[in-house]
TrEMBL record:
It holds the Pfam family SnoaL_2. It comes from the Bacteria. The lineage of its organism: Bacteria, Pseudomonadati, Bacteroidota, Chitinophagia, Chitinophagales. InterPro entries: NTF2-like_dom_sf (IPR032710), SnoaL-like (IPR037401). This is Nuclear transport factor 2 family protein.
Length: 125
């Protein structure tokens, strides 16, 4: 149970900051592994700074986000995040993103996410 509490606390810290677009980075491990955004390329992006740069760009596309559901089991978690997206073409979409996390050494160590990349990318044009 202790491991699950640590995982939940890290995620709560992350998502509170993520929704505010500030102060979420402290929960991320230096050797963080990220897979998402392009499901045809499942090679992870490695490193905290690389992930920070991805999120800087991604944060420009959402006005608000909420955690819809969080399931925590020891050092793993599944989260459904609900986002209000706003695109450069003026289109606004509400969508869910499935986010799968792992924790290692007291930090969030990896994230794999799944979402409707076709709709997302077509609205960036």
């Amino acid at each position: 149970m202790e491991k699950s509490q640590e995982t939940r606390q890290l995620l709560e810290t992350y998502y509170q900051g993520f929704a505010e677009k500030a102060n979420w980075e402290s929960a991320i491990a230096d050797d963080f592994q990220y897979i998402g955004g392009d499901m045809t390329n499942i090679a992870p992006v490695t490193g905290k700074q690389a992930y920070v740069e991805i999120i800087k760009r991604f944060s420009q596309r959402f006005e608000a986000m909420r955690v819809q559901r969080m399931i925590v089991e020891d050092d793993r978690a599944a989260v459904i995040g609900n986002y209000d997206f706003v695109f450069p073409n003026g289109v606004k979409i509400n969508g869910n993103v499935a986010e799968f996390w792992t924790v290692s050494n007291g930090k969030l160590s990896s994230l794999t996410l799944y979402f409707d990349t076709l709709t997302f990318m077509s609205n960036l044009k």
